[in-house]
Design a protein that fits this description.
GO terms for molecular function: hydrolase activity. The chain crosses the membrane at residues 14-39. This is Alpha/beta fold hydrolase. Residues 84-203 form the Serine aminopeptidase S33 domain. By secondary structure, the chain is of the alpha/beta class. The chain has two domains: 1-42 and 196-231, no CATH class; 47-194 and 233-306, Alpha/Beta hydrolase fold, catalytic domain (Rossmann fold, 3-Layer(aba) Sandwich), CATH 3.40.50. 44% of the residues lie in helices and 16% in strands. It contains ten helices and eight strands. The protein has helices spanning 2-42, 106-115, 142-156, 168-179, 195-207, 211-226, 235-238, 261-267, 287-290, 292-306; strands at 60-66, 73-79, 87-92, 118-123, 161-166, 183-189, 247-252, 275-279. The chain has an eight-stranded mixed sheet, with helices on both faces. Strand 5, helix 4 (168-179) and strand 6 form a beta-alpha-beta unit. The longest helix is centred in the first third of the chain and has 41 residues, at 2-42. The N and C termini lie far apart (96 Å).
């Protein structure tokens, strides 16, 4: 019996350290993969600018804007109407996109607005298109970019300013409008209501990784590595500072990237002031493509309602 017990001791001595080593390697692998995925989420490959307004028969000006941070140069276009401008509308693109936002597409909508007498500004957020910057922050620092473009519009044009954004750009437009009281109103197509809670619930949609442990690891690692406070990108906490100015929310019930309930949360904060148009059968930010005429009519009607300041 003593010999039997002794024969098991070497096995235990090997098995326990080996098990610990395997667990440690697994943990390190999960952390390493989370760091890699987090880096990829904030350092998307830039999409090239493959079109210009003159491809759609529009006259435009190349402009370099400066972010509110005073450092980041942002490239973009100003499209002025053939007649005196009624208003300046700043377009804000989505995550990983750029000023043409081909999946909407921005330039086709800009042409319709310019034909109706609206000046349109399109630009690339930081780390997107042709703008400066190395990291996408999903609204945290993009707000500073949009505020810088709004400042340019106010300094160069006498007409009032409105914002039109999609996805990340829609959320960023709400954040910027909350800080700049000169913004008359916002058109927000498919925003998230709160970045941190949205990512916590939908990280597997972005990463295609299991929720546990990767969602928790990524949300812990990325803010630390990138020096970001995700709580700063929270339209639900900013929207009260937009009211009583109006917001038109547009969202598809069949959006597979950002659930339409995100827009409903925002709309429900001030249903007496805000507007909500829910579409069907359109994937993320595809309502314009699927309902082009109705989309344009609703956008134009909303912009016209902003032309006279509220009493």
């Amino acid at each position: 019996m003593e010999l039997g017990r002794a024969s098991h001791r070497p096995i235990r001595r090997v098995w326990i350290p080996l098990s610990l080593a395997i667990v440690a390697l697994g943990v390190l692998a999960c952390i390493g993969l989370s760091v890699y995925v987090g880096w990829q989420l904030t350092h998307k490959e830039r999409q090239p600018i493959t079109e210009a307004p003159n491809d759609y028969g529009m006259v435009y000006e190349n402009v370099i804007f400066t972010s509110k941070d005073g450092e980041t140069a942002l490239k973009g276009w100003v499209i002025s109407p053939q007649k005196p401008a009624r208003m300046t509308v700043v377009f804000a693109h989505g995550y990983g996109g750029n000023r043409i936002q081909k999946n909407v597409p921005f330039l086709l909508l800009a042409k319709r607005l310019a034909a109706e007498g609206y000046r349109v500004i399109l630009f690339d957020f930081r780390a997107s298109g042709e703008s400066d910057g190395e990291m996408i922050t999903i609204g945290v620092k993009e707000k500073e970019d949009l505020l810088g473009v709004i400042d340019y519009a106010k300094q160069h044009y006498r007409e009032p300013v409105a914002l039109y954004g999609i996805s990340m750009g829609a959320a960023t437009s709400i954040l910027a409008a909350a800080e700049d009281r000169d913004v008359r109103g916002v058109i927000a197509d498919s925003p998230f209501s709160d970045l941190e809670s949205y990512l916590r619930a939908n990280m597997p949609v972005w990463t295609h990784l299991p929720d546990v442990p990767f969602t928790y690891l990524i949300l812990a690692i990325v803010p630390a590595l990138a020096d970001l406070d995700l709580r700063l990108s929270s339209p639900i906490h900013a929207v009260n500072d937009v009211a009583p100015r109006p917001v038109l929310f547009i969202h598809s019930k069949d959006d597979r990237s950002i659930p339409y309930e995100e827009s409903m949360k925002l709309y429900d904060t001030h249903p007496d002031i805000f507007q909500l148009w829910l579409t069907e059968k359109a994937d993320h930010v595809k309502s314009f493509s699927l309902y082009r005429e109705e989309y344009t009519k609703r956008v134009l009607a909303f912009l016209r309602s902003l032309e006279s300041p509220s009493p």
